[in-house]
């Protein structure tokens, strides 16, 4: 029903407007008596064999929602009821900011992809905290970044502000230095500034009675030498793991006319490269740390490929938009029936 009826209707309208319309519609639907139970029965798959224990946390299933969809922690409860094993909110910044000028979100239908140049548009970390205070049992990741006007030399301060504000309300943290849509942000992926940033956050983390896992989200456009640096940085700083990968600036072999737009590309064209990065990190590190695999997952087979490459968990974003919530259950079914028992 989603791909034959709902998606064609939604895809007739501006992507960003549709995004907020969908949020409002889901909020309304879940308030109707009986709808919540109906949707949970349709989309959730509760089986103890799907549980995963990763970096000290127990995930009810390995299929999560990537950051960028629920930036402001508005819909995480409803998304949890659609079957996700965990929801990552953000990217949040210390202060709210409007992001880049519109139009800034583009569908590439022929490529089953999306280009965005949103620019960390969000209401600020305190707005997310306010909503997360009512969370009861949704496993939440907090994706943190810096404000656009904050120079890189002062970026550590922004990450510390977000870390402190969210600490009591998220289960793990993700340091986002890999978005292509904030000027000069990716320069923070260089070895020296990245090591300094992660060391600072980890020292702050270890000062807490119960530290939280800190993960690093990396770009798919890193070279092999840079990926080797990432492995070393994870070891030196002692962070919990890596999310591979963020969106790409590559436009290789795209068919859609919107391929000329600036921004980060996500969806099917990213599938191969993100799997390459996962496999490289897993093999070269000798599986020294967990990896959350994200990028181009549009089918159960795509998900199994990421897990077989070395991912401990996976996340959806563009595949969720193109394939619908039924994809979550399809993946979990495939995991249970996999001969490799991933």
TrEMBL record:
A GO biological process held by the record: 'de novo' pyrimidine nucleobase biosynthetic process
E.C. numbers: 1.3.5.2
Residues involved in substrate binding: 71, 116-120, 176, 181, 246-247
Record-stated family: Belongs to the dihydroorotate dehydrogenase family. Type 2 subfamily.
UniProtKB keywords: Cell membrane, Flavoprotein, FMN, Membrane, Oxidoreductase, Pyrimidine biosynthesis
Function: Catalyzes the conversion of dihydroorotate to orotate with quinone as electron acceptor.
EC class of the enzyme, as a word: oxidoreductase
Gene Ontology molecular function, alphabetical: dihydroorotate dehydrogenase (quinone) activity
HAMAP family: DHO_dh_type2 (MF_00225)
Primary localisation category: membrane
Its membrane topology: Peripheral membrane protein
Assembly behavior: Monomer.
Originating species: Gillisia hiemivivida
One cellular component term from this protein's GO annotations in UniProt: plasma membrane
Cofactor requirement: FMN
Keyword Oxidoreductase: yes
Catalysed conversion reaction: (S)-dihydroorotate + a quinone = orotate + a quinol
Compartment list: Cell membrane; Membrane
Pathway(s): Pyrimidine metabolism; UMP biosynthesis via de novo pathway; orotate from (S)-dihydroorotate (quinone route): step 1/1
Name of the protein this chain belongs to: Dihydroorotate dehydrogenase (quinone)
Oxidoreductase is among the record's keywords: yes
Dihydroorotate dehydrogenase catalytic domain residues: 50-335
Domain of life: Bacteria
Residues at the active site: 179 (nucleophile)
Chain sites annotated for binding FMN: 67-71, 91, 143, 176, 217, 245, 267, 296, 317-318
Free-text remark on how the cofactor is bound: Binds 1 FMN per subunit.
